[in-house]
């Protein structure tokens, strides 16, 4: 297998979840329950699937209010934010940017997520590599943000 599972299926800082994994043509695939299809299981996808499951199971976000890899245009360039969680009134609530566990969460990574959020103006911004999670509450009027101790739960 050219795509080594031990490099992808690393333990993360999320509860363990039972994922449907499949090997095809020497590649590992993970079943995405929201999109109802198998996706190539890259390290970033491994983190994204854990985050989505965590937000639905532990933080009570409804499945129907989750958008995965939604397209957006930033400075006339096509971009995709990893996961966008909506509030009960359809407002952008939490924008999440997922990275591989091997990627250190740096100012550059956080700036990328903040750039994506200029379009959405979500209340919360989350950046995770599966090992470390950084979540902040945005204050658009005050042009500032406040880091949270925990990822916020869904509030209807």
Automatic annotation (TrEMBL):
InterPro entries: HSDR_N. Residues 43-152 form the Type I restriction enzyme R protein N-terminal domain. It comes from the Bacteria. This is Type I restriction and modification enzyme subunit R-like protein. It comes from Anseongella ginsenosidimutans.
């Amino acid at each position: 297998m050219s795509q080594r599972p031990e490099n992808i299926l690393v333990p993360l800082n999320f509860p363990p979840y039972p994922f449907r994994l499949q090997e095809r043509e020497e590649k590992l695939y993970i079943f995405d329950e929201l999109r109802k299809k198998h996706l190539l299981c890259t390290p970033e996808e491994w983190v994204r699937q854990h985050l989505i499951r965590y937000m639905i199971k532990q933080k009570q976000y409804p499945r129907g209010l989750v958008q995965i890899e939604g397209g957006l245009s930033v400075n006339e360039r096509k971009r995709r934010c990893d996961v966008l969680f909506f509030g009960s009134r359809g407002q952008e609530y939490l924008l999440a940017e997922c990275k591989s566990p091997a990627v250190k969460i740096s100012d550059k990574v956080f700036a990328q997520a903040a750039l994506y959020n200029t379009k959405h103006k979500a209340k919360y911004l989350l950046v995770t590599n599966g090992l470390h999670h950084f979540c902040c509450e945005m204050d658009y009027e005050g042009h500032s943000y406040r880091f949270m101790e925990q990822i916020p739960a869904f509030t209807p």
